[in-house]
Amino acid sequence: MKKSIIIWCLAALSLVAVIACNGGGHSTEKQQKKGKYTCTMHPGVSVDKPGVCPKCGMELVERDTTEDK
């Protein structure tokens, strides 16, 4: 009986530790860049990977898409 109580308590503590360390992912999501690339001459051009602008041929630059709050 005592062993099962101890095992349940350890399981509950480990679950709380995992949830606390994970933090729900809210703070890390805001800090990560989304990886959008855009043309400095054509801001309407937006792609997910680096390359060149299809309109003018200029190299695309990374745009910071994180929200400032």
Brief descriptors of the model:
alpha+beta; 2 helices; 2 domains; rod-shaped; about 70 residues
Number of strands: 3
Q: Note poorly predicted spans.
A: 27-34
Mean pLDDT: 77
Distance between the termini: 51 Å
Tell me the helix content.
Answer: 25-40%
The spatial strand order of the largest sheet comes to 2-1-3
Q: Into which percentage range does the β-strand content fall?
A: 5-15%
Number of domains: 2
Largest beta sheet, briefly?
Answer: 3 strands, antiparallel
**So how many helices?**
2
Kindly provide the radius of gyration, computed on alpha-carbon positions and rounded to a whole number of angstroms: 23 Å
Order of helices and strands: HHEEE
SS class: alpha+beta
Shape: rod-shaped
Signal peptide: 1-19
InterPro entries: HMBD
Protein name: Heavy metal-binding domain-containing protein
Domain Heavy metal binding: 36-62
Task: Please give a quick description of this structure.
By secondary structure, the chain is an alpha+beta fold. The protein has two helices and three strands, in the order ααβββ. The protein has two domains: 1-30; 33-64, no CATH class.
Describe the secondary-structure layout.
Layout: H1 2-22, H2 26-31, E1 36-38, E2 46-47, E3 61-63
Antiparallel strand pairs: 1-2, 1-3
Explained architecture:
The chain contains 2 helices and 3 strands. The model is unreliable at 27-34 (pLDDT under 50). The chain is rod-shaped, with a radius of gyration of 23 Å. It has a 3-stranded antiparallel sheet with strand order 2-1-3, with no helix packed on it. 39% of the residues lie in helices and 12% in strands. A hairpin with a 7-residue loop joins strand 1 (36-38) and strand 2 (46-47). The protein has 2 domains: 1-30; 33-64, no CATH class. InterPro entries: HMBD (IPR045800).
